[in-house]
Design a protein that fits this description.
Layout: H1 6-14, H2 33-37, H3 49-69, E1 75-80, E2 90-94, H4 106-114, E3 118-123, H5 134-142, E4 146-152, E5 158-163, H6 169-180, H7 189-202, E6 208-210
Parallel strand pairs: 3-4
Antiparallel strand pairs: 1-2, 1-3, 4-5, 5-6
Length: 211
């Protein structure tokens, strides 16, 4: 299920520091207990009560792990959405200052490869992405098992995207390619950001729901 622009995405992941002025992060906001406590309880589209509560818990946990165990750096948590308790099997990937590789964690990678519907929660801390980044979108579309992807920032603001019942991979690939046409390794980070926003604004065309 490779998407176009794979080489671009790999370049962005490997050389992120070439795209971001690290001086802008020296005084970045820290995760506070208040940020964690004010995370909203969202009724996620397509999820039942226990699944909604599980995602709420994992969003809080992502911030707590970043705060207490990962020096404020990024974190990704993966869980299966099937079964009575989605919290039974959870994978946690600890990332770096401005990136996290979900598949670096063996449990997360195993969940993604089983084909069982999964949710991935990511804590981002770079201000150029207050919602899903283009890299997040690429990851979300590349794994059929990822039914939902949730992003929370250091202030506890939450955004998510999910595959609806009428989701079309072909339509999503076409839309993604259309929104990323012309991007190269020299593209400015703000233009990459707006390409992602363009995809999110039109994602319903491919059977995706974004909030």
């Amino acid at each position: 299920m490779a998407l176009a622009q794979d080489s671009y995405i790999n370049l962005l992941r490997r050389d992120r520091r070439n795209y971001i002025n690290l001086n802008s992060f020296k005084n970045r906001n820290k995760i506070t207990d208040v940020s964690i406590e004010k995370i909203p309880q969202i009724l996620y589209k397509g999820l039942n009560e226990s699944q909604n509560m599980a995602i709420y818990t994992l969003v809080k946990r992502a911030l707590q792990i970043s705060q207490m165990e990962n020096n404020g750096d990024e974190v990704a948590i993966t869980c299966a959405l099937e079964g009575e308790n989605p919290m039974d099997v959870v994978g946690i990937a600890l990332g770096e200052e401005h990136s996290v590789d979900v598949c670096a964690d063996t449990i997360s990678k195993s969940l993604l490869m089983t084909g069982i519907p999964c949710a991935v929660v990511v804590m981002h801390n770079y201000p150029t992405t207050q919602t899903l980044s283009l890299e997040d979108i690429h990851f979300f579309l590349s794994y059929p098992s990822v039914k939902m992807m949730v992003v929370v920032n250091q202030q506890g603001k939450v955004h998510y995207i999910c595959k609806d019942e009428n989701f079309s991979y072909e339509a999503s690939r076409y839309l993604y390619n259309e929104c990323t046409v012309g991007l190269t390794g020299r593209t400015l980070i703000k233009d990459i950001y707006f390409s992602g926003l363009s995809f999110l604004a039109r994602c319903s065309e491919a059977g995706l729901f974004y909030s």
